[in-house]
Amino acid sequence: MAAQNVATILEFRPSGRGFEMERERDDDLPTAAQLVDMFEASEDASYEARQLAERDRDYVDNIQLTAEEKAALRKRKQPEIIINRIKRKVDFLKGYEMAQRVDPRALPRTPRHEQDAEGVEQALRYVADDQRFDHKRSQVWDNLLVEGAGGYRVAVKETNYGIDITIDRVPWDRMFYDPHSSEADFSDARYVGLVKWMDYDEAKRLYPDAVDALTDTLNQSSVSDTFDDKPRWKVWADKKRRRVRICQIWMLRGEEWWFAEYTKGGILREGESPYRTDKDESDCELIFGSAYVNRDNDRYGIVREMIGPQDEINKRRSKALHLLNVNQTTMEKGAVDNVETYRREAARPDGVKQVNPGFFEKVRDDTRLDLAQGHLNLLQEAKNEIDMMAGNIALQGNALQKSAASGKAIIASQQGGAMEIAPIMDSLRDLDTRVYRAVWYRIRQFWTAEKWVRVTDDERNIKWLGLNVDPQRLEMAMQVDPSLQQRVAGAVGNIAQLDCDIIIDDAPDGLTPQLEQFQSLVELKKMDANGELPFRAIVKAMPNLKNKEQVLAEMDQAGQGPNAEQLAAAQQMQIQQMLAVKQAENNVMLEAEQRKAQISVETKRQESLIDIEQHRAEAEIDAQVKLDEASQDQEREVDTVRKKADADGSTAIAGALETLVQSTIQSNAMIADAVRQMSAASSAPKRIVRGPDGRAVGVEPAI
Fold first, then answer.
1. Which of 329, 408, 418, 498 lies 20 to 30 Å from 516, alpha-carbon distance?
2. Contact partners, residue 152, CB within 8 Å, separation at least 6
């Protein structure tokens, strides 16, 4: 029956919460009028408790003086001074809670579920992170401290990506419950519920089949000081703003939980609870808790006992200030002409007080410093009283910090001071456990298809955890795609078949003891000559080490050594590296030989060119020398002949001489031209002529 109802829920409402049964209504179910009476009975029974809770919240919000007290201060022309010690205490306890946040743990009930318990933990943490549970937990803790009650709503919501599990905070002023319940966890309550205000048009959209009931509500009213709209409206509906008040109640009928959503005009939706526990028992989506319960079943928080000392602080501070600013005057009758004039001038900073002659020594102004000092002493005592309430955690540690006490001693002292708030902290931990168990029930019941959740332990390499995943199919997929091993953190089979206990670990004692333990291990390791203290123990004790589990796992893997496949792969890689090195060496030698051959050829070519140039220069010089010698010989012969001709006076000889001179000039010109041609030929570009074996055999002009 429950499974059929779940299907109806998910198909009905866009928000994933349309709880109704498609069958005729049972006659023994409460009517709309009876449901309204149940709500108003809870409201009437808790009226005084809610009034005090609202006052407690006002004190935290610095609203601590009544209208009469403000008028009295204004009449005395005193400022409205408020020394709010309550808020400081509440803020400190809120910070203490933030430092005590922990994650849930899943413990298997049978050995065969041991491997899957870690997957359950990851699923719970995924839901908590997705729903910002830590932030909502702090808000509920604030309600427990001040008003004394708070709660959650653990439900499901259908989205485009499947079914999401939601955790919503229920504010204390939206809660109502069985007024006969006396347990702090409301375990004996026959009904619990919440109230909310909604626009009329929005209500018609969510409840299209109950428009008549919503319309009738606009004409009805109810007295309420807390369950009203903001600002407070003491009716079930506001015609002007067109808003209606809607209640949701969860009732325990026998062993089954039922719900109903209704307003003053009628029932909007009702049905059996769709939620089941791991034992297939009916479950309620509302989880309430309280700090303290008195004999009248009223819930209250830790602020309640601070109201008296806080009032004393404000009043004694104002009284002491007033006494320090006023004087009393003692005088004989007739000392002044007008007592009121004297009183008025005495109260003024620049007043002029006139005394009749002869009475100056008989007028005395008395400042009541003794009374002012008494009020200041009692003021300090009231401050100390509030400081000592709810565990003097901070002052316990500060007292020891002035001495040479170790961090461990300071933490131990602070833990002793925190013992006073242990009961209310236990109520908070109980709420955490119940919420996480409800989340686990919803996971088992609604996450029936394959689902992957992100594991955020490794920030650099995000991995995924599979839920409702066949391990054999996942293993085959990893064989096809080995890269999946780097992205998949694990897989859990059918979640509905898992059997786990959900617990909440105690919060850590603090960082100082962990640091002292780590430092002690480091000092011991320095003296560990035989290696008896493993390095892994030091790493495990290191506080605030990111990805500690991953580091330890890698150390374990390194200690186990590589397997056969890893060894074979390493050897193959080593061989390939050696071959690559040998090939690189051969390439270097080949390049060196080629470079050496090129240098040798170039050297020989340069040497050949130098020899050719040298031979050309030598030939040119030799030819020039011979030409000069021939010219000189010819000149000497011509000179000899000319002298002889002059001596003989022979014309024939002169003509022969002229012919010889011309012949000599032509011969010299031809020789010079030959020398120039030879020089030009030797300077022209040439190339080396090689034989069949590649050796140089000569040179020839380059074409």
1. 418
2. 136, 140, 167, 168, 169, 170, 286, 287, 431, 435
